[in-house]
Amino acid sequence: MAASRVVVVGDVCTDVVVLLSGEPAPGSDRPAAISTAGGGAGANVAAHLAALGTPVTLAGCVGDDLPGEALRAGLAAAGVQLALRTVPGAPTGTIVSLVEPGGERSFLADRGANLALQAADVPTPVRGGHLHLSGYTLLAPGPRAAGLAALARARAADCTVSVDPASTGPLAAHGVDRWLAETAAATLLLPNADEARLLTGCADPAAAARALAARHPVVVVTLGADGALWAAGDELVHRPAHPAVVVDTTGAGDAFTAGVLAAWTSSGGRPDPLRALDAGLARAAEVVARPGAR
Q1: Pairing of strands 105-110, 93-99
Q2: pLDDT at position 25, please?
Q3: What share of the chain is helix, strand, coil (3-state, %, to 5)?
Q4: Residue 35, CB half-sphere, CA atoms under 13 Å: how many?
Q5: 64, 254, 272, 278: which is the annotated catalytic residue?
Q6: Alpha carbon 50 to chain centroid, angstroms
Q7: Ordered domains of the chain (ranges, CATH)
Q8: Cα 281 → chain centroid
Q9: How confident is the model at residue 291, as a pLDDT?
């Protein structure tokens, strides 16, 4: 199967979103609104890219179960070209997202078949295309070799490469220096503020963005309700968040990434920073206004 100009590598999961009506009540009951939908960082980015009109191939793994079949069907219907391997005997990944009033969420993750990703599962983008690698792929022993191979092949094919660090907990356990070395060839780095602080030791997100921009051509740091920063060389651009009534922040970062990548790829890797940030922030504002990541 020929790859699209944009290849996304990352997890494919079922999201179980639990909107809590108040603080958790250990040992007792708490009413909640519970829904199930497609999720996984890689799948979310790919689905948003397809919705934005960017041809995209998603590389990943699902289990040989009904959730895996449902996720395949949903992504295909959304216009995503699929390079998904079914892993016999493995469950499809599942994430439980506990969402507190105000939209802040905590994840309980069973990555399942995603941990079986292999280098052969990942198509290389067409020469001069773009690879987006979800950082979760590098943060577990199973799929890490596939992620490293994908990075090497993409750079050899003269592709631009974007990476998001994924999550501070697994990133710290993996080791900051190790992760920075593994992702040194990334053209575009997409951390949130906490991840940028962890990667640099800088308390100020702007200082962290500048420090990372000394290592990568472009760094985009999301700031939650404060918007986002674009750092490239000596340039530092800030855009405020778009207005939104926040229901659930699950997948907001993935939606933002897709908006930025759509602008990136449509401009041949040379987008106007203001346009790219606003594209990401607009997509994120749509997502946080409703439950679920897409």
Answers
A1: antiparallel
A2: 72
A3: 40, 25, 35
A4: 13
A5: 254
A6: 14
A7: 6-23+31-288 (3.40.1190.20)
A8: 14
A9: 86
H or E stretch including 277? helix 273-288
Average pLDDT, whole number, for the chain? 94
The rounded distance, in Å, linking the Cα atoms of 76 and 96 is 23
Phi-psi region of 156 (alpha: psi -120 to 50; beta: other; left: phi over 0): alpha
Please compute Rg for the chain using Cα positions.
18
pTM reported for the whole predicted model: 0.94
* Gap between the Cα atoms of 204 and 196, Å rounded: 9
Packing angle of the helix pair 205-213, 193-200 (nearest 10 deg): 60
Please tell me the distance from the alpha carbon of residue 245 to that of residue 102, in angstroms, as a whole number. Answer: 9
C-alpha closest to that of 252 among 209, 277, 282: 282
Question: CA-to-CA distance for 212 and 192, rounded, in angstroms?
Answer: 12
Give the three-class secondary structure for 181: helix
Would you call 174 helix, strand, or coil by DSSP? helix
Q: Kindly state the tokens that stand for 278.
A: 């606003």
**What phi, psi does 264 have (nearest 5°)?**
-60, -50
Note the pLDDT tens digit of each residue in 217-236: 999 999 999 999 999 999 99
**Which residues does residue 161 pair with via DSSP β-bridges, in sequence order?**
131
254 an active-site residue? Answer: yes
Residues near 22 by beta carbon (within 8 Å), at least 6 away in sequence: 30, 101
Look at residue 173 and give its three-state secondary structure: helix
Whether the CB-CB separation of 271 and 195 falls below 8 Å is answered with no
HSE-CB at 244 with a 13 A cutoff on CA atoms is 24
